[in-house]
Amino acid sequence: MNQNPHLRPAKTAVLLLNLGTPSAPTPKAVRSYLKEFLSDPRVVEIPRIIWWCILNGIILPIRSGASAKKYASIWLPKLGSPLMHYSRLQAKELAEKFAHHGQLVLVDLAMRYGQPSTQQALEALQAQGMERLLLLPLYPQYSATTTASSFDEVFRVLGTWRNQPELRLVKHYHDHPAYISALRDQVQSAWDKDGRPDFAKGDRLVLSFHGLPKRNLMKGDPYHCECLKSGRLLGEALGLEPGQYWVTFQSRFGKAEWLKPYTAPTIEKLGKEGCERIDIFCPGFPADCLETLEEIAMEAREIFLEHGGKDYRYIPCLNNNPEWINAMYDIAQHHLSGWPLGVESDATLALRNQRAESAKASIS
């Protein structure tokens, strides 16, 4: 291979961006992960000095051990973190999808916190000749706390590079038809297997999204509106009427008001009011993780059953559903429009070599 980096075949790449996960379900690994995550000013908008004291003096010492036990309850035997497992599967199968269509596109995964880091992923793509880069966040609904933070980290790394790639961003796809279709397929597949809820008798579908402080909405973050739209479009795709499905928000932290309605109190209310069956799905999480498998599939189930509910059914996230892989491919294809989706031909590379040699000759 020609050692001149300017003469390498120029390749197009897609980098999937996700939040991250501890490397192990241990207090030490969880503490390291939480410290990086909760130190991000995009995530916690509290004056740094005050937050540093709270984080290091209260939260990390108390939450690391408790969170480690929760991670241990959802850790996959021999596979590890569910989020990592399914995110890697998504990257692998998206690459195979490109290859199936005869397109040579590099696909990799980067985690905003933990490993593989954004810097590691970008450097790996650079080593393979990446000259054009599409960022595809695994956050369907845009938020400054997730999407923008992941973009920030990419910009930080690229800011240290002398030779930067062309760059495109997927801001959101909360209402993309292929994404909504994948969500519908995931829910409908569960119903085909286990039976559709009897909505006439009061059964309900709960669509639980990750929550944010209400002040984020008031400051202009579009996340809340995009979640509501995703929920409405999914409800319509399933043929449901308003009231047969509820959009709620989970994972509230601290005393400040967050986006409402909250998931846990909603489930408790439904149980007390005589709703016998709840099906619950998390459309904003493309891959199962702690927040879906422990908080929703386990904790929320206990709340519903303890307050009168009879039948609680958790519908897994998209994970590596073929319809979701197709959706990622469609979304990427739209944003890659106009870019060559392969390597340069031998003839083009030979022409570039010839021109480079001519340039050298003219200089000497």
Give your account of this protein's structure.
It is a single chain. By secondary structure, this protein is an alpha/beta fold. The chain has two domains: 8-23 and 81-172 and 322-346, Rossmann fold (3-Layer(aba) Sandwich), CATH 3.40.50; 179-314, Rossmann fold (3-Layer(aba) Sandwich). Helix content is 49%, strand content 15%. The protein has a four-stranded parallel beta sheet with strand order 2-1-3-4, with helices on both faces. The chain has a four-stranded parallel beta sheet with strand order 6-5-7-8, sandwiched between helices. Strand 7 (277-281), helix 10 (290-306) and strand 8 (311-314) form a beta-alpha-beta unit. The longest helix has 27 residues, at 48-74. The chain is globular and about 85 Å long. The protein starts with 10 loop residues before the first strand and ends with a helix.
From the 3D structure, determine the CATH topology of the largest domain.
Answer: Rossmann fold
Q: What is the arithmetic mean of pLDDT?
A: 94
- In DSSP terms (H or I, runs of 4 or more residues), the helix count works out at 12
**What is the string of SSEs from the N terminus onward?**
EHHHEHEHEHEHHEHEHEHH
Architecture (CATH level 2) name of the largest domain: 3-Layer(aba) Sandwich
Given as residue ranges, the uncertain stretches (5+ residues, pLDDT < 50) are none
CATH class term of the largest domain:
Alpha Beta
Proportion of residues in β-strands: 5-15%
Radius of gyration: 23 Å
Number of strands: 8
Global shape: globular
Could you say which structural class the secondary elements and strand pairing correspond to? alpha/beta
Protein name: Ferrochelatase
InterPro entries: Ferrochelatase (IPR001015), Ferrochelatase_C (IPR033644), Ferrochelatase_N (IPR033659)
GO molecular function: ferrochelatase activity; metal ion binding
Main location: cytoplasm
